[in-house]
């Protein structure tokens, strides 16, 4: 008889809970507090993060693809550092590479899906815009210009929607792979589920981060050395509240027994 293969243990997938728009402000505030604990270490991490992404972008032939694929690996490292700091441990510069050390394969797969999703969104939008421009060129001057402009606007709209869906799938994916050991596709599905389930909360968070991004650009872009650590802390706090909510206290009657 052939030997029975050893059984594999599958841990249950974490399920997203409910969070309110007020949590979005709390997450950003938590990110800020975590930054203030070790600003020097965070800034060094951010500098290395930027240099690595920029260097990957200059790799001949594949630079355009290397950076998006590597991004979740580095984000997972930032989140791991924020999680260690939130648990009272020391933040180290080499936390940035924890994703590479511990879950490189799965995080690179998340990056691959990131790249594939972006390419699909761009191709669909380009197809819509291109077909509209071709149709417009066949219709003549005035009517054709309207069709072409409308088609281009539709292409931009479709791309924006698809990009938003991709960002929902990616938002929690690095944290779920890194901190919950979830498989890449499951992590992206759970991330999208969490964002849809709490859509208003994450719309509020997206608006806040958009505003903070513009503010960070004002002092010659140097604000990114604060923004990226705050984002890492906010992402860790969002993951904690959405997928690992604090356990409820036991009833008072049990406490007195």
Task: Please tell me about this protein's structure.
The chain is mainly α. The protein has a domain at 21-116 and 164-240. The chain has eleven helices and no strands. It has helices at 21-37, 39-57, 63-86, 98-102, 104-139, 141-171, 173-180, 184-197, 199-217, 224-243, 252-256. Helix 1 (21-37) packs across helix 9 (199-217) and helix 2 (39-57) packs across helix 10. The termini are far apart.
Strand and helix layout:
Layout: H1 21-37, H2 39-57, H3 63-86, H4 98-102, H5 104-139, H6 141-171, H7 173-180, H8 184-197, H9 199-217, H10 224-243, H11 252-256
Provide tags for this entry.
257 residues; mainly alpha; 11 helices; 77% helix; disordered N terminus; transmembrane; DUF7847
Q: Ranges with pLDDT <50 over ≥5 residues? A: 1-10, 247-257
Q: How would a textbook summarize the main sheet?
A: none
CA-CA gap between termini: 57 Å
Percent of residues in helices comes to over 70%
What's the overall average pLDDT, rounded?
86
The count of DSSP E runs of length 2 or more, i.e. the number of strands, is 0
Pairing-aware structural class of the strands and helices?
mainly alpha
Task: Kindly estimate the percentage of residues that lie in beta strands according to DSSP.
Answer: under 5%
Strand/helix succession: HHHHHHHHHHH
What is the 3D shape?
globular
Number of helices: 11
From the alpha-carbon coordinates, what is the Rg to the nearest angstrom? 22 Å
